[in-house]
């Protein structure tokens, strides 16, 4: 039996071809008690009228208007939760200075648990209200704020992957904000895993703990190896930064005489549950390492402009068979909205394609065949992210989790094709246009009195 | 005497140094009956309490909250009004195809005057509600829709510069959408000038007619010359496109064996009232032509990504003493918001600075010293645009027009500096955050029951 039926038109990636989008009009999305999509009926299906009437009789039918569309909830693969207070500020500093002068002091200040609670309450609410239904997050080095973050996600209904941040390298981490030694780092990581086990026992929407070495500069090689073992032993996902900037990339090369990809591989930190943020400076000679390990890249197009020192060649990676999803990188990126990052993913790919310097002749200015379409960007934020997380979400189809957003066209008009509507939705949706959000069938944002 | 007093904190460009922003807290902005800022008082000025009390007694005082800020109204130097119905769609086509398959048919369809009225009503409302108080627009070849546009601007209180679009070259313009010959083009242009003269006689907010040859491909050389004469004789502003894309730029070179800048100059179309959209492919050897003529560039950073084939080197132009403002280029750009274009102006400048192709070594990847700050972007959308139009607006200071927007912080927080607040305002403001807009002292958008 169903728990909820939504009648409306939806967009979802064509599972056989991520360059295509299916648009289904006036469907009935039937959601079961576990929060999964049980079936989807179209107007000419024989049960359509019956199910609609049954849902109506039980007051379990939501009927949308013509200017409202259903999209899969978005999946944000890269967030620094404790950086939320500084979102959209100080972005004119280079990465190393931004970290040491702004970011590390801010993250350390979350030992003030009131600050943590207020911040995380606002962050989780904001993510949901932008249509993000699954979020992969870095917490802080300190564990208490991480527990508060996990509780907030449960309370507001955001599916979250959260990691206690590991920073144990005294040479590169400030004394006020680091793990005292490897065993502190590992014990705290284990403690957070146990905490989430307990938290999850009572709730339908789960928190997944994530093994989280911040990046190569912040960790000792020995610590990376212990974290790699811990991830394997517990079959846990891993998140870290990869080849983010000239500086970060050069650090690994000059300190260890090898790229960070190789260091992570040696520490057993690259597998099919690994999420690598940025990868902007990753050499194409190393693409196959990630491909062979089935590790995923979290493309953060806005943040990369400030800290990446180049555009991630998404099209080349997709063509190579690499797995890519999308991230906001709060607060390296100034926007909590994956819509804004979808837009920038398309725009940055076009700048890579066409080139930026008009003093170079057109034929040599850019990198041909680098452009991605809006459909491909949509894939990154939905099915691409879900694939990275091995989750049945990111698509609207039977058997998948009912993670959905209801969006109203920002500017109404009679457009020519379904693709035009999707393009307009992605280019123009602001927070206020996202009228309802469901996570696992639960209504978690409701601006239209559903 | 005053007509209105607004008590609040505001940001405005430092008129002596456009890289700096002044932040004045808890000021009284005193607006006279003509819609000009008469004076600005700060809390320690001796008349502060007196004026505040007088305004209060007459019910002419508006007092803002701590999370509300006043900014100058923005100036959009480049809009195609008749492209509004296709905003945010079909952006994956190259310029020439986009024009012939989408844009020209749409503009031609405005001979349906109901479509024109509904579209322009929505467009003008939208621009105002995004904080744009002065707009420079291309209308259509046909004149009746242009008159409807002018009336809508007057009715809703948007200060507008509007041009009847001239397209008389039968080789490049479709038969269904062009001026029959030069004399039709000129007569229709004159007719629109007369129409606005009459319209302006009754209204405080004025419509300025603009001489508007679409671009070099669409006009015959003879027609350009007659338009140049008409502009001089009537002392009218001029708007056109300049070196927008590889295609447009190459058209002038291959057809006339000279860049479009030289053709416009020969036709007497470059002067201190000329607005040139894009200029993305303008060679730096021609910068001094524009500088000597005091002509302005309308930088359209979002649109340029789709159609410009390079990033406009804004920093180099500013350093060279060229005059630059900002435009949305609706609908080449997908957003009606100058906030979004401010963001992209900063981001595109950083991509030009750092370069985009990670296969080139960091030292050779970008064009050093190309980065603009948020303050410089803010200048483009305010004082820069005002300078291009020779208008006393774009700054909050006595003697200037009271074109103002009241904006609420999208994400509230205690930030470290005034600059942090401005950065967050520019990076995060969405339509819903712009709570009130004044044009020439008239309240034209009011979401907070002022």
TrEMBL record, chains A, B:
Needed co-factor(s): Zn(2+)
Residue span, Amidohydrolase-related domain? 69-444
Do the record's keywords include NAD?
Answer: no
- A cellular component term, taken from the record's GO annotations: cytosol
Q: Which GO terms are recorded in the biological process aspect for this UniProt protein?
A: guanine metabolic process
Q: Which domain of life is it from?
A: Bacteria
Which UniProt key words apply to this protein? Hydrolase, Metal-binding, Zinc
Q: Which GO terms describe its molecular function?
A: guanine deaminase activity; zinc ion binding
Q: Does the keyword Hydrolase apply?
A: yes
PANTHER family, per this entry? GUANINE DEAMINASE (PTHR11271)
- This one is known as Amidohydrolase family protein
* Organism of origin: Candidatus Gallilactobacillus intestinavium
């Amino acid at each position: 039996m169903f728990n909820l039926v939504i009648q409306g038109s939806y967009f979802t990636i064509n599972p056989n071809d991520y360059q295509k989008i299916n648009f289904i009009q006036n469907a009935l999305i039937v959601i079961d008690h576990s929060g999964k999509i049980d079936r989807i009926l179209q107007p000419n299906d024989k049960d359509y009228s019956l199910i609609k009437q049954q849902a109506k009789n039980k007051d379990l039918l939501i009927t949308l208007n013509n200017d409202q569309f259903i999209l899969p909830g978005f999946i944000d693969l890269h967030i620094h939760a404790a950086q939320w207070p500084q979102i959209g500020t100080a972005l004119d500093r280079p990465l190393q200075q931004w970290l040491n002068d702004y970011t590390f002091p801010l993250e350390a200040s979350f030992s003030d648990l009131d600050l943590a609670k207020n911040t995380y309450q606002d962050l989780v609410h904001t993510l949901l209200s932008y249509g993000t239904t699954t979020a992969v997050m870095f917490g802080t080095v300190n564990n208490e704020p991480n527990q508060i973050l996990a509780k907030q996600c449960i309370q507001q209904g955001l599916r979250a992957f959260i990691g206690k941040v590991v920073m144990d390298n005294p040479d590169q981490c400030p004394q006020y904000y680091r793990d005292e030694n490897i065993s502190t780092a590992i014990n705290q990581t284990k403690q957070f895993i146990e905490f989430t086990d307990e938290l999850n026992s009572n709730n339908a929407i789960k928190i997944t703990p994530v093994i989280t070495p911040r990046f190569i500069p912040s960790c000792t090689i020995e610590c990376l190896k212990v974290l790699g073992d811990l991830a394997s032993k517990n079959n846990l996902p891993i998140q870290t930064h990869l080849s983010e900037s000239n500086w970060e990339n050069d650090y690994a090369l000059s300190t260890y005489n090898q790229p960070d990809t190789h260091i992570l591989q040696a520490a057993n930190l690259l597998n099919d549950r690994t999420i690598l943020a940025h990868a902007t400076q990753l050499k194409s000679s190393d693409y196959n390492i990630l491909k062979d390990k089935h590790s995923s890249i979290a493309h953060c197009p806005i943040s990369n402009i400030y800290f990446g020192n180049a555009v991630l060649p998404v099209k080349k990676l997709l063509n190579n068979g690499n797995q890519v999803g999308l991230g906001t990188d709060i607060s390296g990126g100034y926007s909590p909205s994956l819509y804004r990052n979808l837009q920038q993913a398309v725009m940055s790919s076009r700048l890579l394609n066409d080139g930026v310097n008009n003093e170079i002749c057109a034929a040599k200015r850019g990198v041909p065949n680098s452009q991605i379409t809006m459909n491909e960007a949509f894939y990154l934020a939905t099915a691409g992210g879900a694939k990275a997380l091995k989750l049945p979400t990111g698509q609207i189809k039977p058997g998948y989790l009912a993670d959905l957003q209801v969006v109203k066209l920002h500017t109404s008009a009679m457009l020519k094709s379904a693709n035009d509507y999707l393009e307009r939705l992605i280019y123009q949706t602001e927070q206020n246009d996202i009228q309802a959000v469901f996570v696992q069938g639960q209504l978690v944002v409701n601006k239209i009195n559903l």
